[in-house]
Amino acid sequence: MEKPQAERQRAREAREPGREPEGCLVAAIRLPVRIIALVVVLPVRMVWDALAVVGRILRDTVLRPLGRALAWLGKALFVWPFVALWRWVLVPTGRALGWLVKWLVVVPAVWLYRHVLTPFGHGTAWLGRVLWAALTWVYERLLTPVGHGIRWLTRHLVVVPAVWVYRWVLAPLGRAVAWTVYWTGRVLFVLPALALWRWILVPAGRVLAVVGREVWTALGHAWRVAGHVSLAVGRFLGTLFRWIFVEPVRWVYRGVLTPVGHAVRDAVLRPVAQAARTVGRAGRRALTAARESVRQARYDVRRMLFAEPRERVPVARREPAARETRTLGRSTTALTKD
């Protein structure tokens, strides 16, 4: 446990090369905080580890099979019906609607655009060009001279006096007011706030930062130590459970149940199985003999009722004997048989 602790300490020092040396306040706070954190965190860590084990068992034995069953049920109830609805209802309906829209809307709209709207648009564009030319002439010949006159009057009657008033009256007055407000706010708010920040809040923040860092470090150490303690307790409980329950059950199974089972198998089950096989073979032979007797009885009854069936007369084949020789004049092939 000390070696990983030393390695983590060296890694922390390597990440923080500019850290200041610790003072007596840090040394006085660290040990009590770590002891209290260990006492508080140890039960929490043990409960956490127990809940984690129970959660893994529930996940593997209950939640995962339940999730698979729910996934299959969801597919069966929602996905597959919607897929069938999409494939066999919506797609054919969409294709039919697309065909109807094409021939009832698109084709008439294209014809209307090509033979009605396009000529009307060309005429409207020509009329627009004529109207634009008229408006341009009015703007250049009438409105532009009037605008120039209004701009000259506005400049000399409104803009020039307003610029003079702003430059020589409003701007100096505004600077004076801004200077007064700036120094008033600085003296009344900024300087007191700066003194409060520098001489009260910064030292208090440094102390709280040291305390918070030590508390956080102590909680980390306590969590890791509690993890080792929880692991040791878990191993002890596992060993105790194994020696109290598992090993006696294993011994009973190996030392008692297995010999008893072998004895029952050799003394009872095997003779019973052998006898059952013998009885089965005898029964099969009896059934075979009974079927043969029934078949023979049916044959005898059919022969008494319908007489002996006539034997088949063998058909003489027109094939030459082995000692005779085939010639061209004999009918010895399938094509020349009578």
Automatic annotation (TrEMBL):
Keywords: Membrane, Transmembrane, Transmembrane helix. The chain crosses the membrane at residues 35-58, 70-90, 96-113, 150-169, 181-201, 221-245. The keyword Transmembrane applies. Residues 316-338 are annotated as: Disordered. The keyword DNA repair does not apply. Residues 316-327 have a biased composition (Basic and acidic residues). This is Integral membrane protein. Residues 328-338 have a biased composition (Polar residues).
